[in-house]
Design a protein that fits this description.
555 residues, mainly alpha, 23 helices, elongated
């Protein structure tokens, strides 16, 4: 018994690893265009649902697509209505897993091709450039092979358990038991696809009846909402609303499925005579009740979005970190709070620029940082709500100006008045950096997504130069260098920037870069030059050491 259970758990582990590996490989193979499709093809409810179906059918994971939809709505890249449509579609798309398992897993001898797929895929991957599309395709083959190998182990183990289990005992259990069993298994292993494989394996050796297997499948549909609910924790209201829509959809679909179960069971087992092929019957039932769920709720997507708008309302939040907590009656503390807020804004703008150039800011703020390693580890496009980030910076700037207007009504000393002027100069320079960054973001995205290696090389040089510059500011904030050293080393960064302009022109003469791309490269490099100088002008208020290790660098 122990050996059989161990084999089942081993098979489950390999199945889940194969599925996860395949998901990663599929996303690599599809490239940045995959997410672009998910974002762009959601302009109507029908497109959103179809996108959810297609994406889940390709990735073989409704959880991945649902979490993707949650992240997009969180970044305001798609609307709440669109995210609900994608989630609805993902529930129908996930039925593809049941069909693959039922058609392939129980119709063919998996041992004949599962391990050869892993072996051949591994050989291709080893002898190919691991950054190429073919290498990603090889990884997809490996993932499929592992998935089927794990499924074969599960089948074998479940077949062994069948001889030790008294099937008649299950007839005494209520349907609710199997509903919660399917829910619990999915909630624990975080994969309805794996639960589907387990249910179909148990059904194939008659450990459970078709009715019990169907109810477990319904429970698995509810259990998969746990992933989305966990993913929404700490998110913006729309992200929580999308997760709530996912939960409501799956619960309503489960109720529909339970109501139609007797009639559909009779249709499948008696009328269509699938009694000799129960795994096919269960795959068909899975598709039928999810399809009915989508058809039943499709026309209520907009109403559901409107309904959920009344929930998960935000409590009042402040973009500022210091000045809204300050008592203006004490001028000295108000000036200190203002200086700290200026530092806060400076760092926000630095982080916004880094993100816009696809670099996680906290990677650069680590105490011992190798900027080439930072560059290497941040090679992909970072998707974030740049408009929201910019508006937050503008909001901080507006609150600072409002605060200073009130502060100027107080009797400030000459020293404090000069201090306020320096801080406000820094605030203006920092805010201008944010504006330049906002205008530069589209170019940055285009460079990452470009297939031209010369463009990538030039863009990487720009980012490396930017990291050198920003590292100087961080060293200055930590008081590792003084203002004189900062300015001396800063000139070296500017010279590198100027040399890069000449290099771009040379590259254009000898390589195949379109003139429009050349203009974008020049403009971006020029914009970065201005950003460096603006931040230098904003930096004098940073002379007091800033505790960036204890949260100041966080967004």
């Amino acid at each position: 018994m122990f050996t059989t259970i161990l084999e089942a758990l081993t098979g489950l582990g390999i199945f889940l690893f194969g599925m996860t590996y395949m998901e990663v490989a599929l996303k690599e193979f599809a490239g940045a265009n995959f997410k672009k499709i998910v974002k762009n093809y959601t302009s109507t409810n029908f497109k959103a649902v179809l996108t959810g179906i297609t994406a889940t059918g390709i990735l073989q994971s409704s959880s991945v697509v649902t979490l993707m939809a949650l992240s997009f709505v969180s970044a305001s890249l798609i609307s709440l209505r669109a995210s609900i449509g994608v989630i609805f579609g993902s529930n129908l798309g996930t039925t593809v897993t049941a069909w693959i398992v039922a058609l392939v897993g129980f119709k063919l001898k998996l041992e004949l091709f599962a391990l050869p797929m892993v072996g051949l895929g591994a050989l291709f991957y080893i002898f190919l450039d691991n950054q190429s599309k073919l290498a990603s395709f090889a990884k997809i083959i490996i993932g499929f092979g592992l998935l089927f190998f794990g499924l074969d182990l599960i089948k074998t183990a479940v077949d062994g358990l069948a001889s030790t289990i008294d099937i008649a005992e299950f007839n005494t259990y209520p349907l609710a038991f199997f509903l919660f069993l399917g829910l619990a298994i999915t909630a624990v292993i975080q994969s309805s696809s794996a639960t589907t494989a387990i249910i179909l394996s148990a059904l194939s050796v008659n450990i459970i009846s078709f009715e019990f297997a169907a109810v477990m499948m319904i429970g698995a549909n509810i259990g998969t909402t746990v992933t989305a609910m966990l993913g929404s924790i700490g998110g913006i209201p729309d992200k929580k609303r999308a997760a709530a829509a996912h939960f409501l959809f799956n619960v309503i679909t489960a109720v529909i499925a339970l109501l139609i179960l007797p009639a559909v069971s009779y249709l499948l087992l008696v009328t269509l005579d699938f009694s000799s092929d129960l795994t096919m019957a269960l795959a068909l039932f899975h598709t039928i009740f999810n399809l009915l769920g989508v058809l039943s709720l499709y026309f209520f997507i907009n109403k559901l979005a409107d309904f959920l708008q009344g929930y998960f309302q935000c409590k009042e939040v402040h973009a500022t970190k210091y000045i809204h907590l300050t008592d203006l009656s004490v001028a000295e503390s108000a000036v200190v709070a203002l200086r700290n807020e200026g530092k806060h804004l400076f760092l926000k703008c630095m982080k916004y620029t880094l993100l816009s150039c696809n670099i996680q800011a906290n990677d650069l703020f680590k105490e011992s940082t190798n900027i080439k390693e930072v560059l290497k580890n941040n090679s992909r496009l970072i998707e974030f709500d740049h408009k929201k980030n910019y508006q937050q910076i503008k909001s901080i700037e507006a609150d600072i100006f409002s605060f200073v207007q009130k502060l100027n009504n107080l009797a400030l000393s000459e020293e404090d008045s000069k201090g306020v002027d320096r801080i406000m100069n820094s605030v203006r320079e920092s805010a201008y950096v944010a504006k330049l960054t906002k205008d530069m973001r589209n170019n940055s995205v285009q460079f990452v997504q470009s297939n031209n290696s010369d463009i990538h090389e030039i863009y990487e040089q720009m980012r490396l130069n930017m990291l050198k510059c920003f590292k100087l500011y961080i060293d200055f904030m930590r008081e590792n260098i003084n203002m004189l050293q900062l300015k001396e080393q800063f000139e070296e960064v500017l010279e590198t920037n100027r040399n890069l302009l000449r290099e771009i022109a040379t590259t254009f003469n000898t390589n195949n870069i379109k003139s429009s791309a050349l203009v974008s490269l020049n403009n971006t490099n020029r914009t970065l030059y201005i950003i460096y100088t603006e931040l230098l002008d904003a930096s004098p208020i940073m002379t007091l050491k800033l505790d960036i290790e204890n949260g100041e660098a966080e967004s």
